[in-house]
């Protein structure tokens, strides 16, 4: 088995990285940061997001395992004092994995610029840099509403517990192959009117946000932030690709939600 180990920049995470790599070698496994079969991250959800985007082109050949060195994360199942137990589990002949839906994003432009394609594990957020964002929202190519406000967020089920939740979106279980659209400070008055509540879109449908004004917009894809000029439209759908997690011990989703927000 070829294994890559990625850790956050904290001293503690880097220490645990060295300990884990030593255990991996002692157990006869192979360290490989280029073409791994298993990617282990040490830190938090941000570290796993970084590893996801690094290997986004090899998702069908990789499973991820997260070790958290701080508070419980949604993508991290192991604690930093369980390294030997984790490595022993990698040696088991029978292994399982769980998979989560991803968000497919296509950005098209008003000029001759080539469209850009992305995958997101959590969400994609679009905002106007200055002033109110004006955009038409389409569902399956049919105009649904004309949005005016700060911005729009489209999230995956696992991403529903992240920024989506903070702007009033619903929490979706990752067994639901869907994406969710949430408004960010929409303007609703006699002139402008939107639904004003989150939308859950099934895997056979898609969303398009047609920007009505040229100029600079901020596009956030997970932890990546980009300033984009001359955006014409952003299209979203449930991706064909999925992210796979090593299922040796995968915490129940609602347990994660309870531990993060209630317990």
From TrEMBL:
<dbReference type="GO" id="GO:0005524">
    <property type="term" value="F:ATP binding"/>
</dbReference>
<dbReference type="Pfam" id="PF01513">
    <property type="entry name" value="NAD_kinase"/>
</dbReference>
<feature type="binding site">
    <location>
        <position position="185"/>
    </location>
    <ligand>
        <name>NAD(+)</name>
    </ligand>
</feature>
<dbReference type="Pfam" id="PF20143">
    <property type="entry name" value="NAD_kinase_C"/>
</dbReference>
<comment type="similarity">
    <text>Belongs to the NAD kinase family.</text>
</comment>
<dbReference type="GO" id="GO:0003951">
    <property type="term" value="F:NAD+ kinase activity"/>
</dbReference>
<dbReference type="GO" id="GO:0005737">
    <property type="term" value="C:cytoplasm"/>
</dbReference>
<keyword id="KW-0963">Cytoplasm</keyword>
<keyword id="KW-0418">Kinase</keyword>
<dbReference type="GO" id="GO:0006741">
    <property type="term" value="P:NADP+ biosynthetic process"/>
</dbReference>
<keyword id="KW-0808">Transferase</keyword>
<keyword id="KW-0520">NAD</keyword>
<dbReference type="InterPro" id="IPR002504">
    <property type="entry name" value="NADK"/>
</dbReference>
<feature type="binding site">
    <location>
        <position position="148"/>
    </location>
    <ligand>
        <name>NAD(+)</name>
    </ligand>
</feature>
<dbReference type="GO" id="GO:0051287">
    <property type="term" value="F:NAD binding"/>
</dbReference>
<feature type="binding site">
    <location>
        <begin position="122"/>
        <end position="123"/>
    </location>
    <ligand>
        <name>NAD(+)</name>
    </ligand>
</feature>
<keyword id="KW-0547">Nucleotide-binding</keyword>
<feature type="binding site">
    <location>
        <position position="150"/>
    </location>
    <ligand>
        <name>NAD(+)</name>
    </ligand>
</feature>
<dbReference type="InterPro" id="IPR017437">
    <property type="entry name" value="ATP-NAD_kinase_PpnK-typ_C"/>
</dbReference>
<dbReference type="InterPro" id="IPR016064">
    <property type="entry name" value="NAD/diacylglycerol_kinase_sf"/>
</dbReference>
<dbReference type="GO" id="GO:0019674">
    <property type="term" value="P:NAD+ metabolic process"/>
</dbReference>
<keyword id="KW-0067">ATP-binding</keyword>
<feature type="active site" description="Proton acceptor">
    <location>
        <position position="45"/>
    </location>
</feature>
<dbReference type="InterPro" id="IPR017438">
    <property type="entry name" value="ATP-NAD_kinase_N"/>
</dbReference>
<feature type="binding site">
    <location>
        <begin position="161"/>
        <end position="166"/>
    </location>
    <ligand>
        <name>NAD(+)</name>
    </ligand>
</feature>
<protein>
    <recommendedName>
        <fullName>NAD kinase</fullName>
        <ecNumber>2.7.1.23</ecNumber>
    </recommendedName>
</protein>
<keyword id="KW-0521">NADP</keyword>
<dbReference type="GO" id="GO:0046872">
    <property type="term" value="F:metal ion binding"/>
</dbReference>
<comment type="function">
    <text>Involved in the regulation of the intracellular balance of NAD and NADP, and is a key enzyme in the biosynthesis of NADP. Catalyzes specifically the phosphorylation on 2'-hydroxyl of the adenosine moiety of NAD to yield NADP.</text>
</comment>
<feature type="binding site">
    <location>
        <begin position="45"/>
        <end position="46"/>
    </location>
    <ligand>
        <name>NAD(+)</name>
    </ligand>
</feature>
